Amino acid sequence: MRHFGHVTPEERQRLFHREPGVFTSDSPARVLAAALGATLYSPATRPTLADDIVKQTTRGVVSMVLCLEDSIDDAEVTGAEENLVRQFTDLASRPEAGELPLLFVRVRFPEQIPDLVRRLGPAVRLLSGFVMPKFTEERGTPFLEALATAEADSGRRLFAMPVLESPELLYRESRVETLEGIFRAVDKYRDRVLALRLGVTDFCSSYGLRRAPDMTAYDVQVVASVIADVVNMLGRADGSGFTVTGPVWEYFRVPERMFKPQLRRSPFLEGQADELRERLLEHAMDGLLREIALDQANGLMGKTCIHPSHVPPVHALSVVSHEEFSDAQDILRPERGGGGVLRSAYTNKMNEVKPHRAWAERTLLRAEVFGVAREDIGFVDLLLAGIPA
Fold it and tell me: Which domain holds residue 370?
């Protein structure tokens, strides 16, 4: 797998100063956590699930979650499990099985984890792990214990992606205690926790809220405060933190617009792509683009997606710019180990070696999986290349 692997080698060479790296489901956890990108959710009830997964692979998707929880009706669980096993078995028999995305299953109960792994049989080699809903220390620990059991029984490395979405986490009076408990649970299984996912839709539901397509999660203050505290306590750069992914974007066609578009025209005119800008506005993508930028500014990496059209923007904005790469390299030069301040090679900012070191390390990890754009390549070029023909 590689990001932008669905575009031609010639196009990648045109776009990238350093091309995205190749990774597999057996790559180190730090690489896979950074490489998740736009994680596309799909109900496990889909009768064409195997074909859908193959199709999305050819469109640039590198991680998917097949959902047995909120996306399906309670009465559909048994049928969905049977369909999931059937579709995995089908995929495992196909020649393209080695090129599939990282595949995760979102379960409802801990008992489903060892049961599904047993039922998958040899097809378990296509499974990367499980997504665990409404995660707290009390509810989440049995999921992690079940994962460890399933891993031991199958001999297959399996990762956990807990979803932080419970009311206890949202409510101010119980938030710190809940976050401390979550940390205790995931720290015990640190080697198997790939990323923590934010369930912002559930946060909003606790207050009867739903953000509009021209609002981001960061405009809903009760939600923004939770994101800040999750990053504060669980996303630290001191070696104790975890990868935290961005919240889901719910819209893929915009209703009547109240506020002015948030997408400047100039980058698209320069790239001769004004038609693309109009299409992004029509499908509520200007709000999505702004939220992705705010995710990154607030320490989140990757994003939950419920529509294939959301994948190219997430990946285009995840590519490291030539300027970011230049700054990160300068900061991490061995001769800078003692600290100090230097002017950036772009002569437009100060790079302070010690305070910016963690940012530089994180940037080079992102460059490893998403690549580094050429100096004259911008977001619009990457987005155009990433959108399937």
Answer: 320-389
